[in-house]
Amino acid sequence: MAVRATVSRFPIDADAQEASGLPWGLTVTPFAAKDENGIGPAYGSNGHLLPRCENCYAYFSTYGQLDQWAWNCALCGTLNGLTSDVIARYSNPHSIPEMSSSFIDLELPLEEEMTQAHPVYVAAIDLSSSEEFLELTKSALLAALEALSPGSLFGLATFSHKIGLYDVQGPIPVVKNVFIPPDVESSLSLELEDVMPLLQFLAPVETCKDRIAAALETLRPITSWERSSGAAQGLDSVLMGGRGFGTALEALFNYLGSEFGNTFALARVFAFLSGPPDYGRGQLDTSRYGEQYASKRVDADRALLPEQTPFYKDIATIAVQSGVCVDVFAVTNEYTDLASLKFLSIESGGSLFLYSSTDDSTLPQDMFRMLNRPYAFNCVLRLRTSTEFNPGNSFGHFFPDPQYENLQHIISCDSYATYAYDFDFADNTGFSRHSGEQPVVQIAFQYTVIVPPEGVSNSDMSSSSRGKHTLQRRLRIRTMQFGTALNINEIYDSVDHEVVLSLLVHKVIVASLADGVREGRALLHDWLVILTAQYNDAFNLVQYKNGKKSMSSQIDVSFSQCPQLQALPRLVFALLRNPLLRFHEEGVHPDYRIYLQCLFSVLDPGSLHCGIYPALMSYSTPDKEAYPRHSLSRAALITSGSPIFFLDAYTTLIVFYSSIVDPSVPFPPPQDSLLRKTINKVKQERSITPKLMFIRAGQDDATAFESYLIEEQDVDGSGFASTMGFVSFLEDISRSVAEYMK
């Protein structure tokens, strides 16, 4: 569980927090195997015996005082009695995890009937598509079958103007279809359980893998002739559409929900989509993308971000209640309205992937990677604080508990998934300046994992041992104590700019969704102006003449006296240049913007930094690094004198050979070179499969590489290179600060 705060020394009170101009909060990656310093938890059992505070329900930790019969809560100070069982347990403190570490992971007892439940995976495939789409989907699912954990059950379903359910447990695959009513209101005439019993639909992967592969080979796109013949069988008219995505998923969630907690503890639905749902329940009107917003005086950046129907948010609730996590794989370059569809994955703990074409799609690699890494499911995340302050907003892909505040449900959580919180003071008092009590944060994460048989790895398991996997319920707790800053200098000296960026990104996404991209940009710009003004004020950089502030002195917009803040203007500039906040008229596709919102909302601070302001390093040769970091400008490239550059933009990796590379240097870099090893390490550690490009100046089109050199681009729009860019942005901030401080 990695936890990083925006400031390691908390502001002493609300006035100090406001005066700093900084967001106050933290990010948490709950299922990360180690903390932010690379240290793992103390493992143990009997988590149900861990004492809890009678007042605030926090767990016992090393920060609370313990005597023979009682303990003091580290968060609220309440004195709690110890039961006889706990007293006996604590008589040998050296063997008890919570006595030796503030970061613990304890096993919890699980109901007997739940220990053998199977993981369930269902593929829902769009047949209103092309041959190329289906070939890509088949490749992805064949990769998935290799990565599925032993003991898994797999179901294959298709959708178009009808839903197809495949039975692959017999000698040959059999498909049973049920037609989808074309209108928005009507549900299926039959429950899917009546079309095919669920346990007939869900096949054990070990024994049926070949037949699942054979069933995949039978998939063909639905032709217009088939849709017309469907119409002849009782539907009113010849169907122009035929992608009944909403009806199909709603029916699948209800189908699977009947066995939640019995046959399975987690079901994961892979939804493969080749275009917008245009048939049955949840059909979307994609004509709104083609409307001429300018002529109607409508802000397109505001109009295209909200969902146009609550249908997908509503069925996401059904998915959560049914124990279903949904991953949406959209392979399309047409407007699909991901703004409406995203709730399926966001609220169920799944992922949203967008690929603009089948040609260079990394879908099979992404799918294998996603399923081959450890994950937890049926998770509950709770953050508690000491009494002086409270959690404010929470950000991330979770489902908030309808009853309890600050309690989040996460259906599926991998080791990359990151969540963010900001803090508010409980009152005007703040933290004590004189007592020894310091701010405390406690994060509790309860989760279930699939545990293989002891001493047997996934790769060498025989089929006889594979069914013997068990479920384990665990409780991971991290209790952290933070210092308080006695003045603003101490706050600024303790800033973590990557976590500040994380909270800013979450806040501008929320602002964009509520009020449009323009408002999100304004919020970000104003935040930097206020921070710069507060910093200049705190360091007395603005001179007073005759009792009035004189702007004759140069306003420091580069935070020259505070190294921890110096990265922030560049990060804000880069965020304003990112497609997340670029304008519709600049050619940013609304679905790509939504995809970035979903991706950036789950990244840890280091990865998000890379996605917003890519890392650019240079090499003298493929085997020798020259400089570890350059600013994203042509000037930096020219002045470095380095011949080879490697750019890491999180979703894209680019190796660029400049015009000064010696002709004898091999292109692309050899597999055994240092540069290649660096690339492979980056790819291996990433949550998605980045696209890798090799470009030679003068021979290949270098536009992809040059588009990332943002510091000479105009922040407001054209994107064309100029001599201004970042420099003119700082001048604008300086003018705005002067205006603000008048």
Automatic annotation (TrEMBL):
One of its GO terms (cellular component) is COPII vesicle coat. GO terms for biological process: COPII-coated vesicle cargo loading; intracellular protein transport. GO terms for molecular function: SNARE binding; zinc ion binding. Residues 496-608 form the Sec23/Sec24 helical domain. Residues 118-370 form the Sec23/Sec24 trunk domain. SUPFAM superfamilies: beta-sandwich domain of Sec23/24, Helical domain of Sec23/24, vWA-like, Zn-finger domain of Sec23/24. InterPro entries: Sec23/24_helical_dom, Sec23/24_helical_dom_sf, Sec23/24_trunk_dom, SEC23_SEC24_subfamily, vWFA_dom_sf, Znf_Sec23_Sec24_sf. PANTHER family: PROTEIN TRANSPORT PROTEIN SEC24, SEC24-RELATED PROTEIN. This is Sec23/Sec24 trunk domain-containing protein.
